[in-house]
Structures are given as structure tokens and as C-alpha cells.
Amino acid sequence: MAMRPLLLMPEILLFLGGLVVLLSGSFLARDRQWVARVLAAAVLVASAVAAALNLSGPAEMAIEGTFTVDVTTGVARIVADLGVLVVLALASDEIAGSPREGETYALMLFSTAGTLILAGADDLLVLVVGFLLASIPLYGLIGIARTPAGAESAMKTYLLGSLLGILMLLGVTVLYGVTATTSYAVLGDRLADAPAGAVAAGGVGVLAGLMFKAGGVPGHFWVPDAAQGAGGAVAAFLTTIPKVGAVIAAYRLVDVLPDTLAGPLLVGLLAVASMTLGNLAAYWQTDPRRLLGWSTVSQVGYLLVPVAVAGRSDLALPSLLLYLAAYTVTNLSAFALTTAFPDSRNLESYRGMGRANPWLGASLVVALLGLVGTPPTIVFVGKLTTTAAAWDAGHAWLAVAVFVNTVASLFYYLRWIAPVYGHGHRDGSEDAEASHDPALTTARIFSASAAVVTAALSVGLGLGAGLLWRVIA
Amino acid sequence: MLSLIVFFPLAAALVLLSLPRLSDTASRWAWVAVAAVDLALVVTVWVRYETPAPGRLAFEQQVEWIPGVNSSYHVGVDGLSLPLIAMTAVIFLACAVYALRETDRPRLQAALFLFLQSVSMGLFVSADLIVFFVFFDLSIVAMYFVIAGWGHGDAARSALKFFLYTFLGSLALLVGFIGLYIAADPHTFDMVALSEQTPLAGSPLAGGLVLAAILLGLAVKTPTVPFHTWLPPAHTDAPAIGSAVLAGVLLKMGTYGFVRIAMPMLPDAWRAWAWVILAVGVVSVVYGALVALAQTDLKRMIAYTSVNHMGYIVVAVGAAGLVAGDTGEARSIAVTGAVTQMVSHGLITGALFLLAGVLRDRAGSYDLGAYGGLAAPAPRFAALFAVGAFASLGLPGFSGFIAEFQILTGSIAAAPVTAIAVLGILITAALFLLALQRIFTGQTRGRSTGFSDVRPPELWSVGMLLLLSVLIGVFPRPLLDVVEPASHALIDLVGR
Prior knowledge:
The complex is a heterodimer.
Chain A: H1 9-27, H2 34-55, E1 60-62, E2 67-69, H3 71-94, H4 101-120, H5 124-143, H6 148-179, H7 184-193, H8 196-214, H9 222-229, H10 232-256, H11 263-282, H12 288-308, H13 316-340, H14 353-356, H15 358-372, H16 378-392, H17 396-420, H18 438-441, H19 445-463, H20 465-472
Antiparallel strand pairs in A: 1-2
Helix pairs in contact in A: 1-2, 1-4, 2-3, 2-4, 3-4, 3-10, 3-13, 3-19, 4-5, 4-10, 5-6, 5-10, 6-8, 6-9, 7-10, 8-10, 9-10, 9-12, 10-12, 10-13, 11-12, 11-17, 12-13, 12-16, 12-17, 13-15, 13-16, 13-19, 15-17, 15-19, 16-17, 16-19
Chain B: H1 2-17, H2 24-48, E1 58-66, E2 71-77, H3 82-98, H4 106-125, H5 129-150, H6 155-183, H7 191-197, H8 204-221, H9 231-237, H10 240-265, H11 267-272, H12 274-293, H13 298-320, H14 328-363, H15 379-392, H16 399-414, H17 422-440, H18 456-474, H19 477-494
Antiparallel strand pairs in B: 1-2
Helix pairs in contact in B: 1-2, 1-4, 2-3, 2-4, 3-4, 3-10, 3-14, 3-18, 4-5, 5-6, 5-10, 6-8, 6-9, 7-10, 8-10, 9-13, 10-13, 10-14, 12-13, 12-17, 13-14, 13-16, 14-15, 14-16, 14-18, 14-19, 15-17, 15-18, 16-18
């Protein structure tokens, strides 16, 4: 056991990079804040490259065996880094030249570092550190827009995060109390002999904290509010990046929980509750960002399916990583379409968008049908492999639940797609050309490009899923 | 070769999309040219086709796709799929010709239909369940945009209904596919391997559930009673060429799934549930015909006759599962009839929907009561429609007769009770004669006045489909020679 800090290079880069961005942002004039943005982007690229260089190596332990650097951590690093890079592109349209621009980037980098620590944590205490480092910058990010809705959702997130964070600490305490260790390597053996009730209480507590980070039931209440109330780039960030760490952390945790506990059943029920609730709540939303916020709750449900069968099927881990990458790409594409038209905060205001901007219309269709899991997008491969994993582990009911929910989700995504290619306006004017909302004719350039690129990527990755699989399996 | 047939239209669609300045006329003719080339490629395959060994495929190609779940891009043809590929190519060419007069965004329409053609071709040649599913789902997406984008009436609502229904079906199908995958050892999605293995042979309960999931998916798409309610609104509000493709090609994806996936991979479960399938088929035949008889809207009427015609196919495949004694030969005739019916229904119903499109184009209504004495102002239209109607009711000399005769011969030999289905033919005959009478005979009145006769694109497209139906009706041998070995092989597989 040794420190081996070099293995943590991607996280260190993110954290130090965050500090540099914070400092340079403070000293730069408001119209020169793009320098901070470029710095942040460079840091992310460097972190992703460092992660990629480590990817092919064998699994290694850092910081005295409390942090695992394996393929899973590596994939999480690359996905999160590149995901934040896309978020920066959205921010270039939205908050360029605004006050606190540099601080926003710094907070994003800190939160990403925390997320990655969550993903690699192999020790309950490191898990808590990661949780706090990922959460605290997030509260600031949500409220940084300084709008009434932003303040409200920041408050809500903070309260829920504190509550579930305390539950998590309590869970860690209980697990430590019955096993006298916090290291997963030892935890697995000792938990089997520990009293089942205490293990259950501890496990549930830790899971509760992770569900807050992932935005799954029961810690999901903040997600739709924050997605609606925060700025567009922040909304894209908070519905995507924290999930990468939280879901992987949940996987690692469930993997060490003993068979005395019905862990798979519990996580499976949480998964079904998340997907069902997210879908039902999304049905009649009219704000696209709030709709997407609820849709991410349901997506967490799908992500929890392989978590539920952690270690019980060979497909579970690769399918989880594949789905995480797929979800990140596709969800960012959908959010990019909301930041491309910042004034269109109503599904109906997208009427005729597909005719005015054919590329963006096509991207919207790909992104939303991608979230449904329509082939050949990468989410389809993710859904296919995760459900196969669940079935393989003997939980066919989870697979059925996923598909029933997928049908249910189609309806609200179509509610957004339909006006995009709809004729004219509701008031009956048939002249499609004349009825274009002026807000739709000029898409923000960075968001629009990001939307098209990520949509293309979601199809491209789906077609090349075999290559991706070889990397992660 | 098969991949070229599948992806050439898609490539052409992408080229069309990337040329926003292309003139409307050029787009329309480019579409016709691409469809014609694709048909030529299919003809080449047909000429070079040699019947593969039972359980194998001709013109096979296989490339690794998702090795983690043993899914590969695997394509190939046999006697079950080759006729459908040919029919698909013909119908899309007919649609391209028909659309030469299209004025509403012809470039986008051409691209969308070429995409749909790629998807349909891909489905019929796929030999991997996931590849099959990918194309199955994409066909739904493409048809949604055809109806929502170029439809009329309450198109948005009909398109949504179509999407939700068939998407539900497709996911049920996917559940069944994953069930097959998990049961197979080693796990695989490859159709050829699964047909060899028959993974769920030993477990009636699991086999029955997986078959139920697959049947649900295919029954929605086919559609059979009681899953047919999406079909009439989708057809009524779809554009003419959309209806032709929907009825001609997309419905076949359901019945093709029966013979390609359900029967060879789950023979035990299929035999156990053959009576249920047979009953659903008979009900579809009779119910579809009766409801069609009651319609006053021409497109809804044709849509319900589709339920009736597809019902015959379900009867045939159900009867094929009634393994008993020496009925093997009869059951193989029924399967041959089923495949012939898929081709025949595609050609004839495609032609009828295109003709219904002419009605809407000239007079803006499908209401049978709004017309009368149309034969006087539009004699060629009347002649084409009469030929289509007679072909559809199964008159000898047309492909429908060959198909339905074989289906009924085979099915009645295997299960005499299927004779009830003959009733369907009788009712269909009555309803088509009634429709002919109301639209074409008597005094020229209502919307018939000032009706201009069919124009060359309409004549050529409809004529092409009906001519093929007559050719198959008179010289069925070339088609049957391809189908028969495959249906023998299928009956052997079901009898295992």
C-alpha cells in the first residue's frame, strides 16, 4: 500500500486547474473571461488524456488502497471530462461576459473532481469526501444565476443534500461500527458476519446519499427544480456529470454488500420507482428543461438496473459504463438544444423549428429518440445490454419494467418532437414560413454545434458500439 | 451484394439531404432512378439465387457489431425473404413514380422514403435479432414522419397513435429477443444459430412467455385483431404513397417475423399455441371483412381489408403449427400460400391505396357516397380500380387467388375448422362489388363531375403493381419455385 499520487493525476489536474481558473478569473476583466474558459477546457482535455493513457493498464490502488484506478474509473474520468467540455461550449453562448463567469468554471471543475473521487472511491471515508466535494460546488452553481427560481432551487438542493448527506455519514458510521473498517476490500468479508439489520441500515444510508447525487428516487426532488431554475449550462452539468460518479459509486457499494441483504431487490425497486416516477411526472411538463429534468430521473432508473445486479452478471459493469457514456452524450445533446434557443422556454415555442433549422431539428429528433432508446443510437445498445444483464442475473422483471417504462416515456418526448415539425401555429394560420418564431431563426452557435456534434456522436457510437465495448469490457 | 441493396438508398438519401439547392424536378427523378437501380440489383440477386441448404442463407455477409452480446451485422436471403425484398423494391419504385407529381417538399420526401426503403430492405435480409430490431424500430420512426409530415386530416394524432402502438409492440418484441438470447447457450442473437438451437425447447412456461412477447410485438405490426385499431386512422390520414408503403411493406414485417423468428426458434411453444394463433387468424379474417363492409370511407375500407388479408397469413402459419400425422405436405402448402399472400397483398393493396390517393387529389374526399358514375369521366381510373378490386377479392388469374387458394387448401387439410375463413372471401367480394357500384356506376354526380382521368405517373405506378399481380396469378411457378423449398424447410423446423 502506498500513496502513489501520480495515479490520481486526472483528479489532481482538475482540482489544481479549478484553483488556477478561479484565481485567473478574479484578475481578468469581464470581457476577457474567455481566457478562463480556455484554461478550463485545456485542463479538461489534459485530464481526459491523462485518464486515457492510464486506461489500458491493470487495476491499481492509490492512496493506501482507498482509491481504485481501473477501467471503470478511467471510463468515468473520460466521460465526465469530455462531458464538461460540452457544457463549457453551452456556457460560451450563455454566460460569456456575465459576472461570475470564471467562478462558474472553477466550481464546475471542483465538482467534477469530486464526482471522479466518488467514482474511484474504494473506501467509505473517501466516498464521503467525494460526496462533499461534488455537492458543495453544485449548490453554488445552481444559485449562481441569482434569479428567484435559481435561489429557490439552490436552497432546495442544499437542504435535501444536507439531509441525505447526514444520512450517508450515519450509514458510514454504522457500517464502520459493525466492521471496524471502512475499506471495501475488507468490508466485503466482514459484512457477511455482521448483524443483518445494522448492515441494512448502514447500506441504505450510504445509498441514500448516492441517490441524492445521482438524482434518483428518493433523492430526486431537487433535479427538476434545479434543471428549470438554474442556467442552461449549469442545468446540463448537474443532470449529467454527478450521475457518472454517483452511479459507479453505488455499483461498487452494492458489489460489496453481502448476500444476507436483499441489495439487488432494494436497488431494483429504487430503479423501478425512479423510472416510473420520472416518466409520469414528465408527462405534462411544458418547459423543455423541466421535462428533461424529470426525464433524467427516469434515466437514473435505467442506470440503476445494472447496479442492482452488480457482480451477478458479466454484462453488468460494461453495460453500466456503456449506458453512462451513452446517457451523457445524449442528455447533453438535448440540453444543448434548450440553450441554443434560450428564449424558447415552452414546448410550443419550438413549433416550426425543424423547418427553420433542419440540422437542429434532426439533432433534436436523434437526441430525444435516443433518450427513448431507439436504435441505432448508443442508448439503445445501453438499454439492450443493461436489460440483458438484469435478465442474465435472474431479474427478468427488471427488464420488463425497463421496457414498459420506455413505452411510457415515448409519449412526452414526442410531445416535444411533434411541434418541431408541426405546421403553422395553433391559431390556425397555415402559412408555415410566415409563422416562424423570430426566436427560432437564430440559434446560438456554440450550443447548436454542440447539439449537432453530440447527436451525431450518439448515432456514431451506436453504430460503432463494438469498438466501445472492447474498450470497457 | 445484399448490403449494397440495403444501403444504396440510404446513401442516396444522404446525398439528397446534403444538396439543399437541388431543384424539385431533379429530386423527384433522382428518387425514381435510385429506386430503379435498387430494383435492378434485387433482380440480379434473384437471377443468381440458388436455394441454400435448409436452415442456411444465400448471399450471406457477417461483420462483428457488438461482440459483448454476440450480436453481429449478419444478412442473408432465402425463399422466405427474397420474394419480400423483390416486392419491397417494386413498391418503392411505384411510389417514386407516383410521387413525380408531388409538390410538397419533394426532396425531403424522397430522402425520407429512400431511408424507409433501406430500413425495409434491411429488415427482410437481417439474420440477427438485434439488426432485425434496429430496422423494425427505424421503420416506425420513418413512417411516423411520413404520416406527420405529409399526411392530411388529423395527421398528427394518427401518427402519434401509430407510433405509440407499434413502439409498444416493438419493445415487446425486444423483450422476447432478450429472452431468447439469455436462454441460448452460448448467448447469441444470431438467427441461424438460434434456429439450430431452439433454446427454450425444454421449458414450456418460459418458452410460452417469450413466444407471447414476440407474438404481441408481431401482432401489433401485422396487425391482427385485437391490436389493429391503430391501422385505420394511420391509413386514412397518411399520404397515398405512405399508405402504400405502410400496407405493402411495413405490415409484412409482422408476418415475416412469424415465419423467420417465432416458428423456427420456438417450435415447441409454437405448436402448443398453434390453435390460439389459428383462432386469432380466423377472427381477423372474418372481423376485418365485416368491418370493411360497413365502411363508407374508401381508405378505411381498404385498411380493414388489410386486416382481413393479413388474417389469412396468420391462419396459415397457425395451421402450420398443427403437427399431426401426414399433413406435412398440406402445411407446407399453407406456408407457401402465406408467403405468396405477403407479396400479393403488398402489390394489390399498394395499388389500391395509390388509386385512393388519386381520388383525394382530384376531389378531396374518400367518401364512397360523394361519388357516382365516375366511370364516364374517368374510364382508365375505373378500369384500374376494377382490376385492383377483383385482384383483392381473390379472383382467379390474380396473385391473390394463388395465395388464398394455397392457404385455404393447406389449412383446411390441417384443420377443417379453418373453412370458416372462406366466409371472408365472400364478404370481401361483396364489399368490393358494392364499392365499385357506388363509385363508378349510375349517373355522374357529386364529386365525380369534372374528375380528370389518371395521369401518366399514376397510370405507370399502379399499372406496374397490378401487372405484376396478374403475372404472378398466371405464371406463379418462378415465385413458387423460390418459396417452396423454404416452406418445406420451415415445416421441418416447426415439426422438430
